[in-house]
Amino acid sequence: MPGLLIKHGRVIDPASGRDERADVLIRDGLIEAVGQGLDGSAEVFDARGLVVAPGFIDMHVHLREPGFEHAETIETGCRAAAAGGFTSVCPMPNTSPVNDNPTVTSYIVERASRHAVVNVFPIGAITKDSAGETLAEMGSMKRAGVAAVSDDGRPVMNARVMRRALETAKAFGLPVIQHCEDLNLSAGGDMHEGVESTRLGLRGIPSSSEEVIVARDLLLAEYTGAQYHVAHISTRRSIEMVAQARSRGLAVTCEVTPHHMSLADEDMPPYDSNYKMRPPLRSRGDVAAVVDAIAAGVVDAIATDHAPHAGSEKMQEYERCPFGIIGLETALGVALQVLYHSGRIPLTRLVELFTVGPARILKLDRGRLAPGAAGDVTVFDPDLEWTYDLDKSFSKSRNTPWEGTAFRGGPVATIVDGVVVWRRD
Ligand SMILES: [Zn+2]
Q: CB-hemisphere CA count at 13 Å for 13?
């Protein structure tokens, strides 16, 4: 392998505080050097006018394999990830069978090693079949390669089970990622409960359905001393509680999705299922609170919650449609627009949310551009004008609110272990 020399880019590496014109040399899959005027026999990638960042990590995706390959596979989902600038993804365990034991974990790891163009770090289930009753085999799943545990798609409703899960995960050094939703409060709901749900005559999912689980879990996280992470946080009160827990020194983190930082319930065209997800799009005030929290440093990661559903599933009447949207290919475009072009955060902070932020939570040796680190690099243009065209999407599914949207800023090339796995044409 001749190596890859990325020249003349603006290198932003939040882990080391670097933000300067520099070259990055990758050899044998690893970063060999970062600095000015690098040379050597290597293939040259001209990154003039572009940002060169550590490879982006999406800690929350659904790749649907095994079990739902008609909606997405490890191969197609990872191609979509690469086209979104992601070099690593963490698939949630709600496959069929559920990733609640080392056999399924090993199957995913093995499929990924053969078919995925990006790194795959699976998330294991907290409970068997994610049924919320009996703990899954956390220790053996960790040995098989899971980076964290979660019953995502569902919450752990039983507080006693959650306490045991936190204690067990702590013993194995695994973060616990919670999908915060009290199923009794959210039952039957199709969108955020508020003026809009009343106007449209749809059943509501109240903010409190998220907040009561966040509140309970923060108490349990404090009691057990475990590492706890709130997936797709969406309400002002949830943010306030997490901020307070962090100010008191708890090992608590949270992630925000591109849709929860950009869209409110009132932005949904009536009964458009491409705006239907859990947690639902919240009020304008909640969106503002989420963006404020990102700017204030309360949020650790941007995660897409990429949730493919086959066309036949999404093309039903609104109430019957499944929840979730795809998001890998649009995440950077949305984040740049909402956070950077609006002047809310600098590019270094934006890169942090996609790289060392999630890497720290999951204790992944990724997300930085230091010699010896993995040769994972995301090259992007913060000002590139492009339009999202589903016909060119790598995902098998089409459920997105951003079809046809014109973005300012997006990925240009994705490099995994020193190999260009995607490049904008
Ligand atoms: Zn979820």
A: 23
| 415 shares a domain with 312 | no
Number of H helices, E strands in the chain: 14, 19
Catalytic entry in 13, 58, 300, 305: 305
DSSP-derived secondary structure letter, 362: H
Cα 303 to middle of ligand 1, angstroms: 11
What does pTM read for this prediction? 0.98
Distance 255 CA to ligand 1 centre (A): 11
Residue 425 annotated among the catalytic residues of the structure: no
* Segment 220-276, tens digit of pLDDT: 999 999 999 999 999 999 999 999 999 999 999 999 999 999 999 999 999 999 999
Tell whether 102 and 36 lie within a shared domain: no
Tokens 């979730």 found at? 324
Q: Which of 326, 342, 362 is the last residue of a domain?
A: 362
Number of domains in the chain: 2
CA 278 to ligand 1 centroid distance, Å: 6
* 338-394 residue pLDDT tens: 999 999 999 999 999 999 999 999 999 999 999 999 999 999 999 999 999 999 999
Residue 325 Cα to ligand 1 middle (Å): 11
CATH number of the domain residue 103 falls in: 3.20.20.140
